[in-house]
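Translate structure to sequence.
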């Protein structure tokens, strides 16, 4: 009986530690504007397992030589890594996903202005299944000025797809359109997501900063 009570006490201590870690993690994420500034990355660790996903070859800085954009799973976490033609790493960032089977399914290179370019990275955030089914996708923006890839910045964009199924056969789905247009005619293009009358617009403020309006 005493042995049982000791094991039970250890179980509740462990659960409390796990809950505290989860609470700190989610507080860290949601204390940031979910559509705004960069979210913090965890401490750098050497991954035990790396699985390569899709690889894209694009000339990002207009020098006639293609860079390599790789999507990866590092210990089950989504990352994007950019290498030069010599395969030296010039940029990497973790992508926040919410469920299983998450993956990058498209990358688009666009001009924001004469001297600003951006990679729009489309991420299927995966599927969560519990009391309800949910599937989401969002995009991330990697922007840089004057073709200087060493100063590439990362910005979290809004959702572009949401699908949910609740109990009692309740279900809804939203598939947003993503456009890159100069809405205010100031010479700088904005990135917008729109579903019927719902619209979010990301405006470039300069030096890697974006504002969602």
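Result:
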């Amino acid at each position: 009986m005493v042995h049982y009570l000791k094991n039970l006490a250890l179980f509740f201590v462990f659960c409390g530690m796990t809950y505290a870690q989860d609470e700190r993690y989610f507080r860290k994420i949601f204390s940031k504007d979910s559509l705004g500034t960069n979210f913090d990355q965890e401490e750098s660790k050497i991954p035990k397992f790396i699985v390569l996903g899709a690889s894209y070859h694009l000339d990002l800085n207009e020098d006639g030589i293609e860079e390599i954009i790789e999507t990866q799973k590092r210990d089950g976490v989504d990352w994007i890594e950019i290498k030069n033609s010599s395969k030296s790493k010039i940029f990497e960032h973790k992508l926040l996903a919410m469920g299983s089977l998450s993956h990058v399914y498209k990358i688009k290179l666009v001009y924001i202005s004469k001297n600003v370019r951006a990679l729009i990275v489309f991420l299927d955030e995966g599927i969560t299944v519990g009391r309800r089914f949910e599937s989401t996708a969002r995009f991330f923006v990697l922007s840089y000025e004057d073709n200087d890839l060493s100063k590439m910045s990362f910005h979290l964009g809004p959702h572009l797809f949401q699908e949910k199924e609740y109990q009692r056969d309740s279900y809804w789905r939203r598939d947003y359109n993503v456009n890159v247009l100069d809405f205010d005619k100031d010479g700088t293009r904005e990135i917008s997501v729109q579903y019927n009358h719902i619209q979010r617009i990301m405006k470039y403020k300069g030096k890697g900063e974006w504002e969602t309006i």
